[in-house]
Write a structure and sequence with these properties.
Number of helices: 14
Number of strands: 10
Strand content: 5-15%
CATH class of the largest domain: Alpha Beta
Structural class: alpha/beta
Distance between the termini: 26 Å
Shape: elongated
Largest sheet: 6 strands, parallel
CATH superfamily of the largest domain: Glycogen Phosphorylase B
Order of helices and strands: HEHEHHEHEHEHEHEHEHEHEHHH
Radius of gyration: 22 Å
Strand order of the largest sheet: 7-6-5-8-9-10
Length: 315
C-alpha cells in the first residue's frame, strides 16, 4: 500500500504525457487523496501542471491512521493547487492534518433527478415482487463491515415482535454475506430480513420508492449518495450520525439520526414508522442538488484554483 501512489504515477506517466502532447491540459483533477491524489501530484510535478485533489471519504476517515500513508496524504494536500471535500466533516479531517481551512472547498455530491424520482409505492412493490401490505425497510450498501448491516439485523430482532409484518431488504453484495446469513438464521428472521444482492443503479429508485424508510448505519461515511438518492425518491432516512450524513438530513422532516447500536436504531425506526412523512416535500427537497449543479461548482473551482496557482508561478 505505501508504494501504490508511486506505482500509479509511473504506470500512467507515458499515457498522460502522450495525451498532454495531443491536447494541453490546464490541470489535473484527482479524486481520492491516496493513492490517486498523491499519484496525480507526482505527475503534476513532472509535467508542470496544477493539481486539484478531492477527498471522498475513506482517504480521510481511515488512511490517516496508517503510519506510512499519513505523511503522503499531508504532502499531497499541502502541495495541491486546490482541495475539495464532499462534506464539511471531511473538510475538518483535512484541517486536522494541518491544512488551512481557507484552502479547502466543500462541494457536496448530487443526484440524477431523471434516475431518482418518486414512484407510486404500490407500483414499485409490484415490479419488485414485494407484498403490497406491511412495512418495508431498505438499506443500500456493500456487505462490508464498515456498513454495519449486522446492527440493522440486530435492530430487526427487537422490532419484529412489535411489528410482525416488518421486512428489511438489504441491497448490496460483499464478503459479509455468509456472516449476515448466519445472523439472520440464528435470530429466526428469515421471513423478515432479505439479502437482495447487487442491483443495477437504475433499479435503486424502485427499492427506495417501495420502502417506507431507508436505513444506513455505517461506521464512517463521506457524503453517502444513497441517502441523497433516497430523499430524491421521497423516502425518509433513518441513519447513523456519522460523517456528512448530518449535513444531508438537515431537518427532522427528512429523516432521523440515531446512534450506532441496535437499541437506538430500533427506537429510531419505530418512531419513524409512526411518523406521517410528507414524501412529496421530501422528494422536492432531495432533488434540489443535481449533478449539473455540482459540475458547475467544480468547474468554477478548477478554473480559479488553476489560474491562481499559475499566477503564482507554482505547480
Amino acid at each position: 500500500m505505501p508504494i501504490h501512489a508511486l506505482l500509479m504515477a509511473l504506470g500512467s506517466l507515458h499515457v498522460v504525457r502522450h495525451l498532454h502532447a495531443i491536447h494541453v491540459f490546464d490541470c489535473i483533477d484527482a479524486h481520492f487523496v491516496y493513492p490517486d491524489g498523491t499519484a496525480a501530484m507526482l505527475l503534476g510535478k513532472i509535467l508542470g501542471l496544477p493539481v486539484i485533489v478531492s477527498a471522498r471519504g475513506t482517504d480521510l476517515t481511515d488512511y490517516p491512521t496508517h503510519r506510512l500513508i499519513r505523511p503522503m496524504l499531508r504532502w499531497a494536500l499541502a502541495h495541491a493547487a486546490g482541495i475539495v471535500a464532499v462534506s464539511d466533516s471531511l473538510k475538518q479531517a483535512i484541517v486536522d492534518l494541518g491544512i488551512s481551512p481557507d484552502r479547502v472547498q466543500t462541494i457536496a455530491n448530487g443526484i440524477d433527478p431523471e434516475r431518482f424520482s418518486p414512484m407510486e409505492q404500490a407500483e414499485a412493490r409490484e415490479q419488485l415482487n414485494l407484498p403490497r401490505q406491511g412495512r418495508v425497510l431498505v438499506s443500500v450498501g456493500n456487505l462490508y463491515p464498515v456498513k454495519s448491516q449486522d446492527l440493522l439485523v440486530s435492530a430487526m430482532a427487537l422490532l419484529v415482535p412489535r411489528h410482525p409484518s416488518l421486512r428489511l431488504c438489504i441491497v448490496g453484495e460483499g464478503h459479509m454475506r455468509s456472516l449476515l446469513q448466519q445472523q439472520i438464521r440464528k435470530s429466526r428472521l428469515q421471513d423478515h430480513v432479505f439479502l437482495i444482492g447487487s442491483r443495477p443503479n437504475e433499479e435503486l429508485c424502485k427499492w427506495f420508492s417501495a420502502a417506507d424508510l431507508s436505513c444506513l448505519v455505517s461506521s464512517r461515511e463521506g457524503w453517502p449518495n444513497v441517502v441523497s438518492e433516497s430523499l430524491a425518491c421521497g423516502t425518509p432516512v433513518v441513519a447513523a450520525a456519522v460523517g456528512g450524513i448530518g449535513e444531508i438530513i438537515t431537518s427532522e422532516n427528512l429523516g432521523m439520526l440515531v446512534e450506532r447500536n441496535p437499541e437506538s436504531i430500533a427506537e429510531g425506526i419505530a418512531a419513524a414508522l409512526l411518523k406521517p412523512w410528507d414524501r412529496a416535500a421530501i422528494a422536492q427537497q432531495g432533488r434540489l442538488r443535481t449533478w449539473n449543479r455540482v459540475a458547475e461548482e467544480c468547474d468554477r473551482y478548477l478554473r480559479s484554483s488553476s489560474a491562481r496557482k499559475r499566477a503564482l508561478g507554482l505547480t
